[in-house]
């Protein structure tokens, strides 16, 4: 379902500290730094590409007061001069921390639905902060493709091993 996935770095050292600050220390400015670093590893994106994001569980958004992937996507869209739009709604609330690959795949399946009125025949860049197995990105991409999105690419700031 995904045509390509770009990852900026491994989830260690500076990348770990940056994501941790964004997610758990309310350091919203870290989203701008992450987006800037992510931008450096992306190719040209054609005009009209929509940048969207993998929505965080609403329970986590309530605790943080914001969705960190949305912040990253908005910053990246600003850098690229592209539109950032919410295209997915999270229906599942399962946390994937410490889940196995098969558990992650099962949790991700059916965890998203498209927003109503999603315009088809578009190119979308799907943003996530951390990728582990790719199950979340694949599940989200599958929903977008089934809603008629023509091309789905993804970018994540860091990858866990």
Overview of this protein structure:
- By secondary structure, this protein is an alpha/beta fold.
- It has one domain (about 5-160): 3-Layer(aba) Sandwich (Rossmann fold).
- Helix content is about 40%, strand content about 25%.
- It has six helices and seven strands; from the N terminus they run E-H-H-E-H-H-E-E-H-E-E-H-E.
- The strands form two sheets. It has a five-stranded parallel β-sheet, sandwiched between helices.
- Helix 1 packs antiparallel against helix 2 (about 30-40), helix 2 packs across helix 4 (about 70-80) and helix 5 (about 100-110) runs parallel beside helix 6 (about 135-145).
- The longest helix is centred in the middle third of the chain and has 13 residues, at about 70-80.
- The chain is globular, with a radius of gyration of 14 Å.
The helical percent reads 25-40%
Biggest sheet: strands, sense, closure?
A: 5 strands, parallel
Give the strand content. Answer: 15-25%
Report the top-level CATH class.
Answer: Alpha Beta
Question: How many H/I helices?
Answer: 6
Shape: globular
Low-confidence stretches: none
**Which CATH architecture is right?**
3-Layer(aba) Sandwich
The first-to-last residue Cα distance is 22 Å
N to C succession of SSEs: EHHEHHEEHEEHE
Question: Brief overview, please?
Answer:
This protein has 161 residues and is α/β, with parallel strands linked by helices.
SSE topology sketch:
Layout: E1 4-10, H1 13-24, H2 29-40, E2 50-53, H3 58-64, H4 68-80, E3 83-84, E4 88-90, H5 101-108, E5 112-114, E6 123-131, H6 135-146, E7 151-159
Parallel strand pairs: 1-7, 2-3, 2-6, 6-7
Antiparallel strand pairs: 4-5
């Amino acid at each position: 379902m995904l045509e390509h996935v770009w990852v900026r770095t491994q989830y260690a050292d500076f990348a770990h500290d940056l994501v941790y600050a964004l997610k758990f220390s309310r350091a919203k400015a870290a989203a701008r730094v992450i987006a800037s670093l992510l931008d450096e590893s992306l190719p040209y994106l054609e005009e009209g590409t929509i940048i969207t994001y993998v929505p965080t569980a609403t329970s986590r958004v309530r605790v943080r007061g914001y969705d960190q992937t949305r912040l990253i996507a908005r910053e990246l869209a600003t850098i690229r001069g592209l539109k950032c739009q919410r295209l997915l709604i999270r229906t599942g609330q399962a946390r994937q921390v410490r889940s196995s690959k098969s558990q992650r795949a099962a949790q991700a399946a059916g965890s998203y639905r498209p927003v109503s009125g999603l315009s088809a025949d578009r190119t979308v860049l799907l943003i996530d902060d951390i990728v582990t197995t790719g199950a979340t990105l694949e599940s989200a991409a599958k929903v977008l493709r089934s809603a008629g999105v023509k091309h789905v690419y993804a970018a994540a700031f860091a990858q866990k091993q």
